[in-house]
Each structure stands twice: as C-alpha cells, then as structure tokens.
Amino acid sequence: MAPNDEIEVNGRNDLLVPLLQPPENVAIDIPEPVKNMDKKTRIVKFKVGNINCAACATSIESAVGKLNGVESIAVLVLQGQAVIKYIPELIGAEKIKQTMEDAGFPVDGLPEPDIAVCWLRIKGMACTSCSESVEHALQMADGVKKAVVGLALEEAKVHFDPNLTDVNRIIEAVEDAGFGTELIGSGNEVNKAHLKVEGIEDMTIIQRSLESAIGVDHVEIDLANHKVTVTYDPDLTGPRSLIQRIQEAGSGSNSFHASLYIPLGRRETERHHEIDMYRNQFYLSCLFTVPVFMFSMVLPMLPPFGKWLEHKIYKMFTVGLLLRWIFCTPVQFIIGRRFYLGSYQALRRKSANMDVLVALGTNAAYFYSVFIAIKAMTSDAFEGQDFFETSAMLISFILLGKYLEIVARGKTSDALTKLTKLAPDTAYLLTLDGDGNVISETEISTQLIQRKDIIKIVPGAIIPVDGIVTSGQSYVNESMITGESSPIEKKSGDKVIGGTVNENGCILVKATHVGSETALSQIVQLVEAAQLAKAPVQKLADQISKFFVPIVVFAAFMTWLGWFITGVVGIYPKHLIPKDMDEFELALQFGISVLVVACPCALGLATPTAVMVGTGKGASEGVLIKGGNALEKAHKVKTVVFDKTGTLTVGKPVVVSVMLFSTVSMEQFCEMASAVEVNSEHPIARAVVDYAKGLCQKLESLNEYVKEAKDFEVHPGAGVSGKVGDIIVSVGNKRFMQACNVSIGPEVEDYISEHEQLAQTCVLVGVDGDVAGAFAVTDPVKPEAGRVISFLRSMGISSIMVTGDNWATASAIAKEVGIENVIAETDPLGKADKIRSLQMKGMIVAMVGDGINDSPALAAADVGMAIGAGTDIAIESADIVLIKSNLEDVVTAIDLSRKISFRIRLNYIWALGYNILGVPIAAGILYPFTGIRLPPWLAGACMAASSLSVVCSSLLLQSYKKPLHVQDSKTV
C-alpha cells in the first residue's frame, strides 16, 4: 500500500460515472422474476463498517443469505456497502441489519430506500403562505416522514413510509387542503416503463404475456386509456423488449401495437399551460376592463359622450353607471373566480394568502359600487361615486403581473433546460452475431435504448447514453459535461458520457447506463433537488408570511377607519376630498390600496428564484450545489482545507526511481511488491504495480499473471500487507513499517530524506521484518493549484493542506502551491478532528477532497467540496461537487454562493421595499401635504411590479462569470 492518505475506489477520469453510478465491475446476483406477484421485492442498501477484504464480504453474504425472505445480496468491499434484495412480507430491514451486526459488522442506521419518495406538481399556490399550508398538510398526513414544498418550482418532494400510506393518499391530503396536484414521479420511476397499447380489447392477454417475461417485476393495467405500466429489472429487460413482447402476443390478423408513452405533466408542459392560462385570462379581462376604464375616466371628459353617459335611466341611475356595472361583473365573478376559490381554501385552512387580500379589496370596491347603484335607483337627489373601474382594473393588473412573473420564472430553469437538450433524440442500434459481426443497423429513439445495447456513434454525432467503447477509436469532446476543452481520446474499453460529441472516428458503444440513470440525467435531478430544498434564509420569509396577511388586513381596516372618522369629525379640511366623493369613499379607497399593495407575493419568491437561477448556472459551469444549506454556508467560508493527492495534485502518481536495500533480486522484489499492491485501488499502489510490471517485462522475468497475496489487509492512510508464498510482505510508509516492527536502517533513512526533499513519496517494501527496497513516487501538482490558493487569499480565505503523507513531501508540495499551514501524517479521522478544531475557533470551514479517506472530513466540514473524478462515497458526503475536477471551481463555488446570497438579500430589499414604501403611501400619509395618493388599481400594479422585479433581479445571475477566468482574460 502506498503511504499516502488516499484510498480511492478507482482512478477514473470520467468524473460523472463515480459521481452518479455504481461500479460496473460488481456483479449482483439477480434471481428469476418472482412468480407470486403478491410478494413484492424491495432492494435496500446498507453502509457497513469493518469490511476490509473479500473474506469479510463472504461472511456477510453467508449470514444474510440464509435469512428467509432474502433473495440476493451483494457486498461492495471498496464502497463499504451491502445491497440486499428481499421480500418485505417475510423479513424486515431491521432484521437484516441485526444479522449483519451479530456477524461483527456495524451498520449505519436503517437504509434510506425503506422510505419511499414521490414528487408532486402543486397547483394554486400564490404566495409563501400557500406553500406553508401545503407543507403542513403533507406533514400531518399519516406515514409522511418529510415534505418539502417549493413555491417557485410549484413542486413538492415527499418522503413517506410505503407500509403506512401511498401516493394516492398523499395526493388526497394536498387536495383536501384546497390545492390541485398531480404526480410527477416516484422513487421507483427509474425502472418503470409506460406503454400505450392499440389494437386490443382484452388487456389480460397483455398482462399475462408481460408478467411471464424475464425481468418483469410488476404490471399495472389502465383499461380506460389502454395504457400499461411495467416495473422491470434493467439488467434483464427494457422498454424495447417489453414493446416487442406485446407485439408478439398478437397472432395472425389480431396484431397488437405498442409504443412508449411519456406521461404528461412535466414541468415544461405545465409552465407553458400556465403561461397560456394567465395570458388568456388577462386578455379576456382587458376585453371588459378597457370599456369600464373608458366609461369612467375617458369618455366623461368628452362633451358628447359625457352627456350621454350622464343620461338618467331611472331616477339618479345613469347610463354610464349601468355600463360600468355590466362590464365589471364578469371580471369580478368569472375572471376573478380564482381569487374566491383561493380565498375559500385559505380561510378553510385557517390561514390567509394573496387571494384573501385581492378578494377583500375587489369585493369592497365592487359591492360598495353596487350599493351606490342601488341607492341611485331609489333616490331622486343622491349623487355618489362608484368604484367599478377599481375592481376591474385591479384584477387585470394582478393577472398581468402573474403572467409576466411566470414568464420570467420560466427563464430561471434555462440552464437545466439546456442540459436536458444535450442528449440526442435518436441513435443507431446494432445487432451483432456470435462472432461480433453486424447483422443489422436500426435507428431508434434514445428512450428505447437498453443496457448492453451496442450503439453506433458516427463522427459528429452526440453520444446518447453512458457506456463503454467496444470497437473503434476516436476523440470525444466532453466540454459540455466536464468542461475539458481538449477532445479526449477514446479507444476500446474506455468509458463515454451521454451528451458528449464524437469528434472524428466511428466507435461502437455498449450502453451501461440509460434513461434517468445516465450522468446527464442525474446531474439534472441533483440540481432540481437542490432547487427544491429551502435555504435557511427562506425560513425568515416563511415566518413573516404567517403574520403578514392578518397584519395587512388590520392595517387596511385601521386606515379606512382613521380616514373615515377624521373626515366625519372634520380633522382634515373638506377640500382634500375629491369631487364626487365623500369621507367614506375616500377612506375606502385608501383601505383597498393598503390591502393590495402589501401583498407578500414577492417575499416568497426572493429566495427560491435566486437559488434556482444560481444552482442552474452553477451546474452549467461545472459546480453542483446540493442545496440551500450549502449555499448559505459557502459564502461565509473563511478557511479551505485541501487534501493533497488527487486534489492539489493530479492524482496519477508515477514511480521515478527504485532502490534495493537487501540481497533480494530486482525481479523478486518487484514480484512481491506487485502481489500485495495489486489488491489495492490506491493511485500510488497502481503506480507501483505498473512500474514493477514494466521493469520486469524489460527483464523478461515477470509471469503474465501476478502472484496472489494471501491474508491481504488494508491499513488506511498507512499501507497494505499480505503473504506472498511463505513470506510476509508489508508495503507502505515509514510509520507503517515501524508499526509492523520492520527495522529501518540509516541507508533507508537517507534515501527517504533525500527524496522527500524533492516532494517525492517513498513507498517502502518490508520483507520478513527488514526493508527490502523502496520506490520513489511523485505526483505532479495541478497547474492551477498555485493560482487558486493565491486568489483565495485575495478573497480573505486562508488555505490549509491536510494529508496522510510524510511531513517533508507535504511541506514541499505546500511550498510549491503557496500554502503555509500544513498538517501531515494524519489518518482520515485525524482530518475530521482537525476540521472540528478549526470550527471550535469559530471558523466556517470548507473541505476539498476526492477519496474515501476524505469522506469523514467532508461530512464534518461546514461545506464539503468533492472533486468530480473522486469516489462515490466522497461525493455522497459532499455538499458541493466540482464535476470538472478543476481546482478553479473551488473559487467559483465560493464566489457563486456569495453572489447568490447577495442577490437573495437584494431581493428581500426589493420585496420588502415595495411594502415599506408602498403601504404608507397607499394609506395616504403623503396626501394631506402633497395631494399624492395611490389609487387601488395603481396599488395592484405596484404589487405585480414587486414580484416581477424580484424575479428579474434573480435572472441577472445568469450573467455570472467565473472570477478566475475574468482575471485571466485581463492579464492576457
């Protein structure tokens, strides 16, 4: 084992594969499909400790495999995980966990898959109060463990216990709260195909045919719509095979036709529908509002029309009053019906929202106008001013504001939309014979690609799925995913990422991850989850909204009462009352204006819109931010802790020299070192193995197959050991040799000291208690490392390097990149302890790493940043993933979080600024001194402008530029 501090699961450069996918070289035994469909299976994944070797895995598999109800188990040694397929009716996850612990392997809690997840589209939310009501209704539902509702996304993510409730009951809970909802997807949607069947009346034929197919777990039939939903095992079948199965079920003239059916209701479709709805409602409202406006404010000033409008139909009831009443009524009760429904549902929930404010304001204006009209019909001398135009114009302006807001909000997900469009629509599927010869070539939809399919990628074509090159050679442009500007050479055995472009040669690719399993899809899902998660600062808006509406209603009532009483008593002069108004009417207009202008819509959009735009922009720049908490803390970071290998360095060490310190021949030395190191996935271990193989091949003495070491043991951050034949071999650093009681002579000490001064790591090989020889390994520093450290310093952020390597090597690397504070020769837990000690001093600490050994530190840090080419566990532990494996993105992540946080605060200023300034003006505080007042329709326009300004403010984040790139362009 190499003496460094990293233990990598793999050394892959295709950074997105370890980010989002399980390793392909792990074979999980999948049994035949369950014949009894009533006994549904479930797959869970446990994090298991103390797994050091294949023998440990065998022990776990033996203990758990004997349990009644366990169908299969696979233990992933390097990941420290156990994947179990079991029947919930026969055994529970708790029993499986207990069995593993009884076998001597600690298990970290119950697995997350025991909790199901679903995503819902929520309709009818107008402000933060609405999202709070939905969230409360979901959390109160039986079986719901956690619910998060996003106002800007209009979505809810619900975690629930499938044994206590289901999706239908969750939907009912939302609808009972007064909101429309529909299912977007659930946690098991990954391996579920939706098919539409034509040409058949008896669907039981299809059901029986599909249930008997290999790999099919469950079949659901929708008789009314001739649709079939199939849950399947992607390793055994896929949508194309299922369609073929259905078509083969028909015979003779009775042929069946099946096609892939994509359920409607996805975000883009819903957004276009909502935009169309508000636009049409606004146009319809204008159709009636414009005449009301003309009859009340324009035509009366034109003598011929004015006299005609003042013509009395009956007593004091005029033509103009009748026309205004007629044209205003449809706006109030038909077009404005949504405000009544929203108000009713809110009041039924014992809460208040924007709809309540709008309904109160427009009803006050409308029904007071009706009172004026009735009084005019019953009086010979009464003269009063109606407010029909106030009601109609107010509703029209609110609809216009909502339309513009939704259009603008749709642009907040532009970055994600661009990502999803990277994948092509079609691909060329090849059928091969047993000898690998091409039998046929068919162009199919990329949605029909299945695992293990062979896809032909011609020059200039976009690769549709993640896979492995089986034939051919080419260069692939991965810049749209990884940010790597130079095309990457791909040959047989190399991995490719869906959405990247094949530059020149023709290659054949075997699909390994398709559909929502691809790296591209997983990136989108990760960013969507981050956008749905609430930032802590959002809690402020949620708290304000709970009390805001009642306070506004009270303020509006007091405004009306204050102006009315002071007017009647005569505290203010009568000339302040406009012509054709009295004290009551003037007070009513002030009260309505306060109701409308204080609506808290913009407050609820301040945080989520900024987070949506910022995280989407970050994803397009190669920085995946996993949620609001990461954003909240990242902009406060004052200390960044860097791992060394694979983070500050390239992570591809090479052996630069070898020295023997015993009578062992070079051939034997290389053979023994390779036999032990070949079992390790550490990058330095691979460098030693590659060097030993190359050297012995030159000497023509190494067998084709390296000897196998027995009793292999891994000692994290120190080394590895094993038995080669009858010889005990230890490979690692100086500290590990001392722990193994291997004597180190002066000659070895001099060799170590000499090479450590050159920033080279010494890998010592101990044979039967003595150092037989050593390898000097170097890992080049990343070219951008020094620039990043310097830029962080200019941002007021200090940098620390923590590594398991020796002090001399660590100091040399630190000096090269400009880091002054170094902590070396520490184990994984030591890294985490160091971070905690920094936090105890009041520092907000970010950790940047890539290996399994970094996962405790990444989890302990306030903000964990994982290099994208690192391991699954490191990335799972991180809050931010730098998918380009470029250290410049550490600066980008912190700078972007600062920009987003600044934008959120600015949005709150916009949102609250309208209220702080608008409410006093609407209440008439300036009117006695300047004659300026805010009519209700203008107050409605201000309310709409506040929401629009917040969204547009957030959209400015789309122009974000990386700070290091800007700096570089200035210096060129």
UniProtKB/TrEMBL annotation:
Domain of life of the source = Eukaryota
A GO molecular function term, named singly, is: ATP hydrolysis activity
Q: Which Pfam families match?
A: E1-E2_ATPase, HMA, Hydrolase
Q: Which GO cellular component does the record give, naming just one?
A: membrane
- Name where it's found: Membrane
Keywords attached to this entry: ATP-binding, Copper, Copper transport, Ion transport, Membrane, Metal-binding, Nucleotide-binding, Repeat, Translocase, Transmembrane, Transmembrane helix, Transport
Specify the protein name: P-type Cu(+) transporter
